[in-house]
Amino acid sequence: MKTQRLQVNRRRGLALVTVLALMSLLIVLLVALLQLTTTDQAASSQSRNQLEAQANAKLALARALGELQEQMGPDQRVSSFATVLDANEETPEIDGVGRQRLLGVWDSWGDWLNADYRDVDGADLGIEDTYDRGRSRMFRRWLVSAPLEDAEALASVDYAKNAAPSDDNYQTLLGQGSVVRPEDEVRAYLEDTGAGGRVAWWIGGRNQAVDVQSFGEKPKRAAAGDVELASGDRGVLAVNTVPGFENLPEDESILEKLIDQRQIELASVDREAMREKYFDVAEGTTGVLADVRWGGLKKDLNLLFEASSMPREFTRSGKTAAPGPRPLSSDLRGYGPKLANRAFSSFEQMREFYRSYKKSGQTPLEWEGDAPETPLYLGHNGTYGHAADQGYRRTPVVAKHYSVYSLFTTRSSADNSPNQGDRANLFQNDIVFSSVVVLWNPYNVPLELPSGYMLTYTLPYKILPSSYVGYRDGRQLNANWIRLAQGANYNQMGRDFAAPIRSNDGQPIRFEPGQFRIFSKKGLSGYGGNVLNEALTPGYDPTGAFGQRMRVYSNKPAGDSNRWGVAVRLDPWWNTDGTAYYWGGNPGAFGNLLWHPNRRENYTMGTMYDWTGPDNDYVEISGTANNAAEVANYDFNVRDRVQPFCVIGITLKSAYESDYGAVGQRVKDYRSKNWLQSLNATSMQKMNVNYRSADVREMQRLDSGYRLHFTEVNSVNDVSKLFNVDGATQELSSLDVDQLVYSVPTLEVPTVPITSIAGFAGMRLTPGWYRIPNGGGPMNAMSRFNDNTEAYNSGVPGIGVGNSFAQPTIRGSRVYQYHDVSKLYPSSDSGGRGGQASTDSNAFSDYWDHALLVNDGLWDSWFASSFVDATRPTGGNDRELRAWATRFFEDGEPLPYTGYEPSPAAEATPQQAITDVLGNEGYEVVARYLLNQGAFNVNSTSEDAWFALFSGLNKRDVAFRDGSGSLAIRETDNDGSVVVSRFATPVGGVEVDDPRQGVQVEGVGRMWTGVREISEDQLRRLAQECVKQVKLRGPFLNMSDFINRRLTDDRADDLNRYGALQAAIDYDDDAPEPGSINGMYKQGEDMIPFNANETSVYPFQRAAGGSRFTAAPGYVVQSDLLRPLGNSLTVRDDSFVIRAYGEKVTDAGEVISRAWCEAVVRRLPEYVDGNDDPEEPVFILDQVGNPSENGDLSEINKRFGRKLQVISFRWLDADEV
């Protein structure tokens, strides 16, 4: 989409009203300067010449302030030092940049990341057009005085690559008195004042350094509930990790007085250290909570979701879809999605996820004392309407669903078939079956499933179509295979019913956090029977089988033992005309499961999973036609008990290959990065395999979280081993033979208010509600609802907000891809017969990069204020929302995120601020009352600053729940390491050091906790890699640009595979290092080669490579670090230092007096023209997310943005420069 944008020429003259406004603004700033320097001048005994030099220095300062106001006053700007242009990011030295410490200004990317925008000259471009080193097409100018003839050059990125001339026309403003390295020195051009003087100035950005005032010791949080509430807090910035600053005092009363570098020197910091780390450590930096994309102030998710109801604009009311952070704007509709109204995650979903801990939520947790658990919640209202409500769906997920086929021999006299005389020495030979289901609670809290509430089809024809053929003495008896089909005759499988999943005592079935539980048929039923009454109950009974039997042989004499046998194969169902059999839509479809709250209502849970297709049609599981497996022969001496001979089912993929026995030679390895690509659903994912294209089928199988599994077995012990069942307890002992965990929480149900955008990382990113057309009867409505909401998984990642891994199903340069994967009733089978045309629901064909798009909607326009209602049963600080606001504004007490401080420029009284913040529009106005202390510009190339940012987490503990559900604290060690967690409240506080083994958590089992400790050495390497990413990608043009992967097909440096922070974490993907942060997950077979699928139809095949454990709990991802750090981050400087110089010269040009001064300046939330409210945006979005210029915002504010405040001014001696 091409959007008309406000056109601002770089330097082409000012309108009179603008000049007057700027002059007025500078007068205000200069008055502030005079107030700061009056005493200094009154006590001065300097000569008139020196006073003139000082006056010229102030003139230089005024010119710098004017330039700063125009260039960095508006919200839609980003900034970085010229070090970002380093030609060789692999070395710590800066190559190819002569003037390394010039501060550059870029226009931000002012549209959606995938949409068209314009460069500084107004020319159209896409984001990929900005990916050159230095993002030159968005560059505005360098903030330093320069000759008029250099005006055009100053507006070029390349200007900084050349060294400043050494002649007398340039003056040193940052020299050996301030810095150590010659490369850090700054020389600026001397401008002639026309009155016997010359001036020079330079501006530096201070948010690219770490803030000393943010180092202060915070009170220890003693209560676990307080630690839990602080999960979104960064703690401190560890300035004491910067060499030379080890003895910096932690007393906040001292630190808050350090407002310039001279004062820092008085705080136990050696001056040489200050010179060495001038660009790594700053004093009193703050940031404005501004939206750098659209302009205006950010809106607050906390206050939006804390309100008893949301404004209509955020709800589905009167709309065809529930609004979300990233609307389906015209740029997205331009891709031509098949379902143009189905968008992405909605504000309704986010709100209900956020409010889970509250008793007032629509889908609240239940509390037993201070221990939470989640009830089952389906998320829609039944068969006939199937309108998704606003709650957050929580159900168990099907992890495995198998049919176990067994031989079963009885004496003919014991059989219920028609009487044919005495059969005492004759035998009947049947095939019987049982179902084994493994359900998974993917949440970090216990989940309860009401007994009998869930049902599953168990008849083989409704699970996976199969057939058998008889053998005698190893030879196939006939060419025609017999279907294992429904019917009432003795040689058919019985009636069409579903079996309920029930507890043994009628009580709800409890799943511990992340727990997998196995359910099976207990005991052997009599012949026939109603499957609805034959429940699956907890545990695995190897002797179990349903009463339905398929008669294979009758009246065989005892001497024929081991002569008669069977083979079973997968057998797609086709009608005689070559069309697909009606059940499931596809001939090889896996049957569905139902929720059954009462006899009149059924709720679907995952339907019609068709893996087979022509490639796997007619695979024999136990036979000699296609493999070397032995035929399953009946042993007449083994009577009245099951003899398992094959299993067929669907299973979640794991990091380890499944055993296919003798059939394995025909089966491809379809393992993938399963925890990342597809483990997000509330139910088993639907697949309509493409019968027309082998390539598309391959993509579907690689991308799916599930796979078809079948193998022959020889005994009940083989089956127990296959399902990894403990022989003593008959419960699961591991997920598979190589992966010994059986509890894996991957999704979060918050037990505490979320105080960081990355706190939504544990929320599923499945689409929100949208209107599904009615028609076709209730079953069609049910199917449409299931397909379009619960079963839809195309491009939805396994982890949520704050992460950006490329989806291999979508080209690197795009956020959308169509795939032909939604057809039902295919009209040709593997034999090539023709038939009727298929139908296409389009339900799964729209593949979106959901994570990138939701990130794009959140990180620039929203923030988390941490004004929350913290009342909950867990103890600790349980203040209500009003109490937090009152104590913050009236008493100066910190919020749960301790980095926010009241803005001194807000003219309202504390009482008025409280009223505004708690009012209906509080989410819109709260940012005007806040400054972000220690805000850190991610365009920084300071390794020490990045390291201090990360190391500050060492002062931050992590709350966790033990096996009983009680809160406890995992304290950090004093060895420089930090602890991060996937969840605000993980289960178990011990980290995994071997993903195969997991850790034992009492009351829960062997699990992955999601807790990780990152060592000091790993943090140092992470800081180095972050700087490398800044140089490769920077400057980042907005926060979305930093969080998200690059939109390009260029494979250079893999910048399109993940966001910058994840790239820094996983720097060793191509050459894994055991000691790296995720090194334990990258050993040998853990890694999928990056060229493994070169011939597949993956549009972005390289994105499929990497660790199979990627995004598993414990595998460190971006959001694990962004949860505590995200509130601190920005892409621009709001705090600045200005060095100004003035001199008095004779008519002959001789310098007779000099003066240097320094001012520390910060930006405030208020606009220059105070007639506009601070939150007024530069661009406004319509209902579908299309931007347009805001005509209500004054031209002055569009040009000059927000007010600047001089907070420190001092004169410098020559040796200080």
Number of E-state strands: 57
How far do the termini sit from each other?
Answer: 50 Å
Average per-residue pLDDT, rounded, comes to: 84
What percent strand? 15-25%
Number of helices: 26
Largest sheet: 7 strands, antiparallel
Gross geometry: elongated
The portion of residues assigned to helices is 10-25%
Residue runs with pLDDT of under 50 for 5 or more positions:
1-21, 38-45, 382-387, 415-421, 582-588, 624-628, 828-836
Q: Taking Cα atoms only, what radius of gyration do you get, to the nearest Å?
A: 34 Å
Which structural class should the secondary elements be placed in?
alpha+beta
TL;DR?
By secondary structure, this protein is of the alpha+beta class. Helices cover 18% and strands 22% of the residues. It has 26 helices and 57 strands.
